[in-house]
Design brief:
This protein is mostly helical. The protein has five helices and no strands.
């Protein structure tokens, strides 16, 4: 099997399998998604990938060994990942509250209509 992802620097059989499992099948798929979103997709799918995978994906996109990525770039990737994670936490907290509010409002409206209609 000729796996395009395995031909990229830093990506081996396991990382390529994880990427395939989340719908990333080519270098262009990987470029389109970017390192942070690809890493998040793998983690969200339940694979126990370390931050090295994040750096490996970024290195694959840059065609450099992950250990040669400048520290500033690694820090920027981590900040981007943290920002997305924080947004997701806020979103998952807000959504249930909004749904409860609408359910309560709907139920109150239904009772009012039932009594008056």
């Amino acid at each position: 099997m000729n796996d395009e992802l395995q031909h990229l620097k830093n990506l081996g059989k396991t990382s390529a399998q994880w990427l395939h499992a989340v719908g990333i099948h080519s270098a262009s798929d990987l470029r389109r998604l970017g390192a942070v979103d690809a890493y998040r997709a793998v983690r969200t799918r339940g694979f126990r990938a370390s931050k090295v995978l994040l750096y490996a994906i970024e290195g694959a996109l840059m065609d450099v060994h992950w250990n040669d990525i400048p520290a500033e770039r690694k820090e920027a990737l981590n900040r981007q990942l943290d920002a997305l994670s924080a947004r997701q936490k806020i979103s998952s907290t807000i959504k249930p509250n909004i749904y409860r509010h609408f359910e309560h409002t709907f139920e109150r409206t239904r009772k009012t209509c039932k009594n008056k209609c």
